[in-house]
Amino acid sequence: MNDVQLALLIAGVVIILIMLIYNWSELKRISKNQPSLSKPKNFFNEDNDPLFNDLNKKQEPTITTEPKAIIEDELDQPLSGSEKIINSNLPDGIHRDVETVISIISKTVQEGSTGLFLDKIKSMPGVRVYVRKDNDLWATETAIYDSIQFNQILLVLLLASRKYILDSTRIEAFKELGKNITSKVDGSLLWLSNQDIEKESFHLNKFKKEVDRSLVLQVYPKSDPTFHAGPLIDFFKQPIFKINNKSYHELIAPDSGFKACTLTSLSGKPLNISHESFLQGIVFKMDIPNTIKITSAFNEMIDTIKQFNAKLNGVLVDASRKPLNDDQISQIYVHLKKLEKIMQEKKIPSGSDIAQKMFN
Fold it and tell me: pTM score, two decimals?
C-alpha cells in the first residue's frame, strides 16, 4: 500500500468518525428536547397546581409497606341471595364495601352493657357497635343503656378515614375486642365482610390517597386593593349563595341543588359581605371526594367566577397568584374528570353517603 492509498484510507476513517459523532449529538439533542415538545404550554407543577395546594389540610402519615400476597379485587358481581339477606338485616349506616363487620350471636339473651366494653370502643377510632334482641330495631351509641337486652351484636370498623391510619396495632386491637366480646357473652363470631383487614385497608387507603384532593381557586381585584362593597353586596344577593351553620358562604348548583364549593376570605375565615367590608380576595374551595357531580360543580364554579370577575373587575389566579387562562382551566377539568371516573369505578361515587363516611 503506497502513501496515497494510506492517506485516502485515513481520511475515510476520519470522515466516518465525524459522521458518527454528529449523528450521536443530534440524537441526544432531539431526545433532550422531546419532553418540552409534548409538555403543555401552561403546565401545572407542585407550586401552582390548585388540585394539590390544600391550604387548610394537615399532612397525614401514609402506609409505606404493602401486605403480602395482595390480590387484585375481582370484578363486582350482582348480589347473591345470601348477600341480599345480610344487607337487609343490617342497620342503616353500615357500608360493607368500606367497613369490616363482625356478627356475634350469644346463646342466651344478655341484659346490660357490661359485656360490650363500651369505654374501650369509644377510645378506638372508627369502631362502632350495634345490638338488638331477636328482630327488634338495632341500637347504637347512646341508645345502648345499662339495662338493655340483646342477643345479637354487630362490631364495625371503618377501613379508611381522613382522621386516622389503620395500622397493625389498631387492627389487632379490633380483632381482640371481637374475641373478648364473644367470650364475655358466650357467643359465636362470624365475619360478614372484609375479614382480611390488612389487605382491604391497604387497597382503600391507596384509593383514598389518589382521590382525596381539594381544588382551591382564588379571585383578586384586578386593579384596586379591595372589591367595591356595593357591587359585592349585590352579587351575593343571588339565590345560588347560601350561608351554612358555620357562617361560610356556599355556592349551590341550580340544576342539582347541591353544594358546588365553599367560599372563604384569603385567611380562610367566613366572608364579611357588608358596606364595612374590605375584601382583598375570595377563595373558592371544592372538597372533591365530598362533592356531588364533580365536573358539573366545577363548571358552575367557573361560570360564577367569570360572572363575578366581569361585574367586580376581578381576576382568577392559581396558588402562585398567576392568572389562569382557558387552557389551564381545561387541564383542571380533565383532571377532575379522571378523579370522578376513579370514584365511580370503585363504586364510591363522589358526594355519596359512603364517600362522606370515608372523607369526613
Answer: 0.73
Q: What are phi and psi of 91, to 5 degrees?
A: -70, 160
- Report yes or no: 117 and 155 within 8 Å, Cβ to Cβ: no
What nine digits make up the cell of 208?
383514598
Handedness of CA 23, 27, 28, 29 (dihedral sign): positive
Cell of 342: 376513579
Q: What is the pLDDT of residues 238-270, one digit of tens each?
A: 999 999 999 999 999 988 899 999 999 999 999
Task: Render the burial of 141-159: b for 16+ CB within 10 Å, e for the rest.
Answer: eeebeeebebbbbbbbbbb
Going by C-alpha positions, the residue among 49, 54, 45 that lies closest to residue 214 is: 54
DSSP sequence for 255-283: TT-SEEEEEEETTSSPP--STT-----EE
User: 324: closest CA among 172, 241, 215?
Assistant: 215
What values do phi and psi take at 307, rounded to 5? -65, -40
